[in-house]
Amino acid sequence: MASTQSKQLQVTLIKSPSGRSDKHQACVRGLGLRRMHHSVMVDATPENLGMIRKVGYMLQVEEV
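Now predict its structure.
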């Protein structure tokens, strides 16, 4: 059985999504990031990990 607690990741936007492709900007917004140096906690689901992988060059990711 899967555990009820999933890993949490702290994601911080360190580069501006301005001027990037629409899909990359959508991934940043989908993760809940609104502005530069804004941090959010997200679950390590396959969907979130895919978005993080796509725009990883703009993010700082820490495992909590």
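Strands lie at 8-13, 39-43, 59-63.
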